[in-house]
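ARCHIVE CARD
Drawer: 12
Card no.: 0347
Subject: one protein chain, sequence and derived structure
Cross-reference: see card 0346
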Amino acid sequence: MDWVQVRERDLDGAALSAFAAEIAASAREAARAVGHAVRILVNRRVDVALAIAADGVHLGFDAMDIDVARGLLAADALVGVSTHSVDEALATGDASYLQLAPVFPPLSKPASRPPLGLAAVAAAARGPVAVIAQGGVAAENAAAICAAGAAGVAVTGAILMANDPAAAAAALRRALDAASN
């Protein structure tokens, strides 16, 4: 199942809620049109996640504690965390999933950390929390990332910076489907 994480740092309050609601409705409609479902996550903002009936929240390094978020959300809500090393990944506690980044040099921004590589994905995947690999992910390396143990991938630049975002998303979906078979 695909997930959409609404992450817009330039909006706050009502504007962020309206934007997130629009993205969630559009993503759900598009998924239904092809007979699929999609899970919606909101970055850092539990209040917005609650307001739009999102499936969960992604907590960054400076967000609220996982246990506090879990206490505010539905029992089955996803609560994810950002990690930037194997040690952080293995210490995520009660998260539903973790994003490990950057696996490769990011496509959407200058690198602020050295890439961790596939060995870090494999090491983190040996822990109890599902790993979502992020950073430099594209259709060309998605299968290798999954083979290393990632439960999935998170992308920004591979789609948003592509000349044809729809074709890039379709190529990534094909690569992930092939990797899971």
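Annotation on reverse: The mean pLDDT is 93. Strands lie at 2-6, 38-43, 56-59, 78-83, 97-100, 130-134, 152-154.
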